[in-house]
Amino acid sequence: MSARNPAALLESLLEQLPSDVRRVLVRTNGLDGRPPAGLKDVARECKMSQGHVRALIAAGEELLTDVVRLLSRQRERL
To answer: For residue 3, what pLDDT band results from cuts at 50, 70 and 90?
Structure first.
């Protein structure tokens, strides 16, 4: 899948996620301009358990994967 402006596409996708999921994904992947952070650091920064952070990451990855699949199917139809 290609995009004319990948950064804008990613930003748009992230905006569709629940705020807590978005915050954790952005922080763990360093999309906020800071170096990527591990579960322990993100949990401490967001004041939640590592298990909760892990669950939010999994939920976000699942949601983003679903969107990519849908976009890929739409592109194949064109």
So the answer is: low
DSSP secondary structure string for all residues of the chain: ---SSHHHHHHHHHHTS-HHHHHHHHHHHTTTSSPP--HHHHHHHHTS-HHHHHHHHHHHHHHHHHHHHHHHHHHHH-
* 9-23 average pLDDT score: 91
Tens of pLDDT, residues 18-50: 999 999 999 999 999 999 999 999 999 999 999
CA–CA distance, 67 with 47 (Å, rounded to integer)? 29
Q: Is the pTM of this model over 0.85?
A: no
Domain ranges of the chain: 6-77
Q: Which CATH number fits domain 6-77: 3.20.20.30, 3.40.50.620, 1.10.10.10, 3.40.50.720?
A: 1.10.10.10
